[in-house]
Amino acid sequence: MRREPMNEKILHLRSSGGFYGAEQVILTLARELSALGCSNHIVCFNNTYHPHLELLEAATKSHLSAVAVDCRGVFDTQTVKSIRQILTSRAIDVIHCHDYKTRFFGLCAARGLNLKKVATNHLWTHANLRLRVYEAIDGMLLNAFDKVVAVSEPIEMECRRFMLRTDKLTCIPNGIDTSRFAISNRDEQRRITREELGFKPDDLVIGNIARLSIEKDQALLLRAFKELASLSRERSYKLLLVGNGPEERPLRNLATELGIHDRCLFAGVRRDVPQILTCLDVYVQSSRREGLPMIVLEAMAAKVAIVSTKAGGIPKVIVDGKDGRLVDIGDADHLARVLHDLLNRADERTRLGQEAHRVVEAQFGAHAMAERYLAVYRSLMDHA
């Protein structure tokens, strides 16, 4: 028997550095939970030294309740007061924290309140010593939550090392709204997008859409692209990098050093990801570390052939040779060889794209993800 909606009130808390995979997950989850009868409120940190309110803007456009709270540093007591005021005034049932910073502030704000606390670990990047210290502290803080969700099995295993009670831990893979990528006039959209970006009809375009950061390892992709170009000098290969981040300048410099800067386009942040995906011949995920990246699921939904490193939860989604191709982490030569093979076999690219679409439709839909989160919320509330 289907359970009647209870109008659970969920507060999603996020401190972000832009609009990337985790932000898309939160937005999609809030939309789907609303359709399931929940009241969702998104609270974004306005980090005064590095403000990023893209999630707030996207949530507002989707007609979701969303506000920003100022955060001036690690020990900003006013941030705690602002969150607590929202929790009490809106009679929140569940506070859902989506990163290490919001977990610290969320726990402080929820202290003594009669509500449930849920944390999702989207990824610990281990990008530098400072972050590794924060992430270790975060691992210990997870024990104060009623339920901890990991978005992939490798992340679940990382969390398990810190958990005193592993029964608090569960894995819920990310899900996407596949309808966003069902573009009816695909060929025409491909032509328009390529023309806008300056690509020719016969160019073979490789794309990466991600934050330009160490863990995403676009440097590997640049080195592989250099090798690819030397394998087939007669083919017109182009590389499209969409996103921004701390590694942008080093990556631009590397492209120049490798002599490939004239075939690489750094397109910055784009909000038209479904359209961008139509112009690609192959999507590449070159990461060192991952959870379960939304963009890989999105490329699958868009029927784009995918080549990815075996990072994080990706091998649980992509089976090499069945619905995509997998390469070893950090192996530029292997990546170049696989790309060379795939870019010279249009029929294989089509087959992989179609199979990937079938897999993501069957296993990684947004509605199924939301139902699993709702089951977590309700199980906690039932045992209050």
What's the architecture of the largest domain, going by CATH? 3-Layer(aba) Sandwich
Order of strands in the sheet with most strands: 3-2-1-4-5-6-7
Largest sheet: 7 strands, parallel
Q: What do we call the CATH homologous superfamily of the largest domain?
A: Glycogen Phosphorylase B
Radius of gyration, Cα only, in angstroms? 21 Å
How many helices? The count is: 14
- At the first level of CATH, what is the class of the largest domain? Alpha Beta
Report how far the terminal alpha carbons are from each other.
23 Å
**Domains (count):** 2
Percent helix, as a range, is 40-55%
**Number of separate strands:** 13
Q: Write down the overall mean pLDDT.
A: 94
Might you state the CATH topology name of the largest domain? Rossmann fold
Rough outline? globular
As a percent range, the share of strand residues is: 15-25%
* Poorly predicted sequence stretches spanning 5 or more consecutive residues: none
Structural class: alpha/beta
- Order of helices and strands, N to C? EHEHEHEHEHEHEHEHEHEHEHEEHHH
Textual characterization of the structure:
There is one protein chain. The protein has 384 residues and is α/β, with parallel strands linked by helices. The chain folds into 2 domains: 185 residues, Glycogen Phosphorylase B (Rossmann fold), CATH 3.40.50.2000; 186 residues, Rossmann fold (3-Layer(aba) Sandwich), CATH 3.40.50.2000. It is built from 14 helices and 13 strands. Strand 5, helix 5 and strand 6 form a beta-alpha-beta unit. Helix 1 packs across helix 14, helix 4 runs parallel beside helix 5 and helix 11 packs across helix 13. The longest helix is centred in the last third of the chain and has 18 residues. The radius of gyration is 21 Å and the shape is globular. It starts with 8 loop residues before the first strand and ends with a helix. The model has no long low-confidence stretch (mean pLDDT 94).
